[in-house]
Amino acid sequence: MTQTRIHPHAYERLAERGATEEEIVKTVETGEKFAARFGRTGFRRNLPFKKRWRGKRYKFKQIEAYAIAQPDGWLVISVVTRYF
């Protein structure tokens, strides 16, 4: 079983970007995998949202997690959240 860890810097930014630790782990485990810059791997997942974010209502939230492969799994170093 692979482990998904979140770098402390990325973890500090989760709340300001509107993501949770659970969403990040699920994105790495089940999201679309793609090649990213600097030899990193990206994971993308769309989630139903149907809530307000910063004063505007959105139907969906997209999580992108950028990670580095580790011997025991993935280390997420950055998270991007988009609302649409």
Offer a quick outline of the entry.
The chain has 84 residues and is of the alpha+beta class. The chain has helices at 8-17, 21-30, and strands spanning 3-6, 32-35, 41-53, 56-70, 73-83.
Spans of at least 5 consecutive residues whose pLDDT stays below 50 are none
Task: Provide the number of structural domains.
Answer: 1
Shape: globular
The total count of strands amounts to 5
* Helical fraction: 10-25%
Largest sheet: 5 strands, mixed
- The SSE string, one letter per element, is EHHEEEE
Query: Which structural category do the helix and sheet elements fall into?
Result: alpha+beta
The separation of the N and C termini measures: 33 Å
**How is the largest sheet built, in terms of strand order?**
1-5-4-3-2
- Calculate the mean pLDDT score and round it: 95
Share in β-strands = over 45%
Q: If helices are DSSP runs of H or I spanning 4 or more residues, what is the number of helices? A: 2
Q: What is the CA-based Rg, rounded?
A: 13 Å
Walk me through the structure.
The protein has 84 residues and is α+β, with helices and mostly antiparallel strands. The chain has one domain (3-83). Helix content is 24%, strand content 56%. A 5-stranded mixed beta sheet has the order 1-5-4-3-2. The longest helix is centred in the N-terminal third of the chain and has 10 residues, at 8-17. The chain is globular and about 40 Å long. The mean pLDDT is 95.
